[in-house]
């Protein structure tokens, strides 16, 4: 039963007059007596076939998802102020806009310009992407739920957002929505999905640009029968919008135009471009470019564990001469001592890879000792073998 005018909701919102009616409820212009402002109140009417337990469950879901919708901050999403359960049904309090619905505009002006419709669709698609990101499905996108102001296009009436996808509803055989705007998979009993909202968006834009509903059918079953017959969708005024509408109105959700590509194409059409580029771009192999030889500086060899480069041969130095001891006798006036060459392993930090060998004292060492004795002892004190 519909509430009467003057009814006070939640001891705060006074219902003034209805501003819209639909199959699932009535939208009221109401007065928020606490904040002294005008608001819109959606009175949701649940199907009479539902039992009390299911009605209570759906009311709770409406409150929960209504509050989630209130968290979506997007200029094309109606602002939800409050969700109330009273008289065993949910009520949704929203902002009140001075606007006309898209349905009223089409009835007054007839088919709209394709580029204007593309701009409306671009804003509506932004709203759907925002609510889908929150896990919310609208489930009732249609021209009467689209409000058009001078500078905004707003998607409103989220009254069915919590009433679809429920197991109890599916078992009861109830499909909520508006005939002619329900996606084919939902008519067949499949679960609602973001792709279903995109199909409803395509049907809404089709009505706006063609001036009539899809196939002119009044029931969802008749529209589904026309779609599955294989006959092409008639488009006389869509112009550049026709490829986008065909992509959104695909029967199979798997091949339906996705939200990202649809947003790009709608923005392009609204700016004066074309919407023909729907197929993915073919893969083009990258041609190898001719490499240009760039001279590089020669790299210095790496010296692992060495502080010096390859050892350079020491310059030849004449042996130094020392004066002969005056007490010495013999034909030699000076003595020459050999210069010790640098060891080849000097400056190398590596350890030998092989096993360590202990060198025994051999003949060369004895000869060097003899040379040292010859330098220290005078000739007269030397052994006979050293004289």
TrEMBL record:
<keyword id="KW-0723">Serine/threonine-protein kinase</keyword>
<feature type="domain" description="Protein kinase">
    <location>
        <begin position="13"/>
        <end position="269"/>
    </location>
</feature>
<feature type="compositionally biased region" description="Basic residues">
    <location>
        <begin position="350"/>
        <end position="360"/>
    </location>
</feature>
<dbReference type="GO" id="GO:0004674">
    <property type="term" value="F:protein serine/threonine kinase activity"/>
</dbReference>
<keyword id="KW-0418">Kinase</keyword>
<feature type="region of interest" description="Disordered">
    <location>
        <begin position="273"/>
        <end position="362"/>
    </location>
</feature>
<dbReference type="GO" id="GO:0005524">
    <property type="term" value="F:ATP binding"/>
</dbReference>
<keyword id="KW-0547">Nucleotide-binding</keyword>
<dbReference type="InterPro" id="IPR008271">
    <property type="entry name" value="Ser/Thr_kinase_AS"/>
</dbReference>
<keyword id="KW-0808">Transferase</keyword>
<dbReference type="Pfam" id="PF00069">
    <property type="entry name" value="Pkinase"/>
</dbReference>
<dbReference type="InterPro" id="IPR017441">
    <property type="entry name" value="Protein_kinase_ATP_BS"/>
</dbReference>
<dbReference type="InterPro" id="IPR000719">
    <property type="entry name" value="Prot_kinase_dom"/>
</dbReference>
<feature type="binding site">
    <location>
        <position position="42"/>
    </location>
    <ligand>
        <name>ATP</name>
    </ligand>
</feature>
<dbReference type="InterPro" id="IPR011009">
    <property type="entry name" value="Kinase-like_dom_sf"/>
</dbReference>
<feature type="compositionally biased region" description="Polar residues">
    <location>
        <begin position="330"/>
        <end position="339"/>
    </location>
</feature>
<protein>
    <recommendedName>
        <fullName>non-specific serine/threonine protein kinase</fullName>
        <ecNumber>2.7.11.1</ecNumber>
    </recommendedName>
</protein>
<keyword id="KW-0067">ATP-binding</keyword>
């Amino acid at each position: 039963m519909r509430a009467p005018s003057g009814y006070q909701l939640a001891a705060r919102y006074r219902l003034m007059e209805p501003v819209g009616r639909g199959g699932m409820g009535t939208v009221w212009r109401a007065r928020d007596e606490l904040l002294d402002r005008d608001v819109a109140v959606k009175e949701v009417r649940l199907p009479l076939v539902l039992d009390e337990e299911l009605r209570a469950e759906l009311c709770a879901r409406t409150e929960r998802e209504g509050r989630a919708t209130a968290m979506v901050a997007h200029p094309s999403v109606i602002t939800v102020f409050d969700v109330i359960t009273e008289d065993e049904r949910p009520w949704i309090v929203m902002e009140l806009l001075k606007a006309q619905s898209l349905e009223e505009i089409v009835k007054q002006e007839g088919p709209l310009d394709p580029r204007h419709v593309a701009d409306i669709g671009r804003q509506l698609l932004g709203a759907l992407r925002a609510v889908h990101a929150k896990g919310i499905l609208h489930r009732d996108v249609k021209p009467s739920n689209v409000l058009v102001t001078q500078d905004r296009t707003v998607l409103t009436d989220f009254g069915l957002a919590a009433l679809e996808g429920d197991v109890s509803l599916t078992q009861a055989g109830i499909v909520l929505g508006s005939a002619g705007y329900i996606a084919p998979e939902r008519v067949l009993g499949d679960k609602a999905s973001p792709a279903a909202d995109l199909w409803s968006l395509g049907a809404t834009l089709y009505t706006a640009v063609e001036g009539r509903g899809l196939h002119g059918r009044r029931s969802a079953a008749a529209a589904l029968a026309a779609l599955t017959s294989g006959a092409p969708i008639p488009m006389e005024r869509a112009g550049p919008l026709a490829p986008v509408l065909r992509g959104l109105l695909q029967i199979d959700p798997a091949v339906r135009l996705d939200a990202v590509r649809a947003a790009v194409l709608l923005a392009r059409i609204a700016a004066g471009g074309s919407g023909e580029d729907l197929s993915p771009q073919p893969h083009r192999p990258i041609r190898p470019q001719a490499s240009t030889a760039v001279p590089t500086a020669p790299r210095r060899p790496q010296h692992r564990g060495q502080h010096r480069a390859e050892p350079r041969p020491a310059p030849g130095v004449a042996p130094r001469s020392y004066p002969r001891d005056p007490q010495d006798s013999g034909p030699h006036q000076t003595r020459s001592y050999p210069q010790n060459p640098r060891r080849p392993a000097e400056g190398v930090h590596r350890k030998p890879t092989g096993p360590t060998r202990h060198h025994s004292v051999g003949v060369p060492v004895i000869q060097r000792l003899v040379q040292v004795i010859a330098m220290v002892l005078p000739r007269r004190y030397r052994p006979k073998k050293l004289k």
